[in-house]
Structures are given as C-alpha cells and as structure tokens.
Amino acid sequence: MGDPQPGATSLDYLKAYLDYAILGVLGAMSFVMVFYVIERFLYLGHVDPASFRSGHELDIALTRHLTIIATIGANAPYVGLLGTVLGILITFHDIGQSGSIETGSVMLGLALALKATALGLLVAIPSLIFYNALLRRVEVLTAHWRAAREIATEGPQATAEPRR
C-alpha cells in the first residue's frame, strides 16, 4: 500500500497506515513486557527476603511491575481485535466502492485483517505465562520469608526434632 493521494479521506489514511499502527502498538507492548519480565526475573533471583522487616514491604518490592505485565497480557488481544475489526471495515468499504464482489480480494482483505488478532495473541500469551511464573516466584519468596519469621519468633526449641 502506498501513501494516500492528496484529497484522500480518513479511510484512505487508515487503509495505508493501519498495519503500521497496530504493529507499532503491539511491538511497543511487547518491548515493555520483555523489559519488565527480564527486570523482574533478575530482581527476584537476587533479592534477599530476610532483609525486609515487614511482609508489606516485601510484597510491594516483589510485586513491583507485575501489574504492567498482566495489563499487557490482558489488553494485547484487544489491540489485535481492533486491528481486525478496522481491517474488515476497510475490506467491506472497498467492496462497496468497487460495486462487485471478487472472492480473492475479499479473502485477501480478511486474511490481512486477521493477522492483527494473531499478533495480539502472540504478545498476550507469553505475557501471561511470564506473569504467572513471576507470581509463583513471588509466592515462594513470601512463603520463605514467613517461614523464617516463624522460626525466629518461636525460638530454637521450635527447630529441634521432637523426641520419641
């Protein structure tokens, strides 16, 4: 698709730049997701839960940026769906303008529209997988912190094996 000609309508601009816009938004979402996933994996791999005095401080530190990853996973399919709906709208507009229905052009338009949904899912699925993996790591670190606190408050007699 080339650039719209002078005097073009907004639909012509949408037709020319829709793929770039959807790919740009999904690419940006993907980049942000990968950045925060790497940052969280590095942080959670090196954090010392014993250095936190309260469970609230620990929870805040461990769950930082997880909301961003989950939000990207939840919204990427909708961005892809928006691209699909707009692509179908453009296809139907082109059919209406031409006055005739050619199966090949309709199928091509619909196939190009559906790629936006597929790309949205390609961003969302890994995002949610990483979110769940990171959330599990947070739960494990929090459980270790609570267990260490319980042992510290119960004293040395709690750590000894019971005699039989």
From TrEMBL:
GO cellular component terms attached to this protein's record: plasma membrane
Membrane topology label: Multi-pass membrane protein
Domain MotA/TolQ/ExbB proton channel: 61-146
Xref: Pfam families: MotA_ExbB
Superkingdom, taxonomy of origin: Bacteria
Record field: transmembrane: 20-45, 66-90, 110-131
Keywords: Cell membrane, Membrane, Protein transport, Transmembrane, Transmembrane helix, Transport
Gene Ontology biological process terms in this record: protein import; transmembrane transport
Keyword Ribonucleoprotein appears in the UniProt entry: no
Subcellular location: Cell membrane; Membrane
PANTHER family on file: BIOPOLYMER TRANSPORT PROTEIN EXBB (PTHR30625:SF15), PROTEIN TOLQ (PTHR30625)
Similarity section: Belongs to the exbB/tolQ family.
Protein name per Swiss-Prot or TrEMBL: TonB-system energizer ExbB
Organism: Thiohalocapsa marina
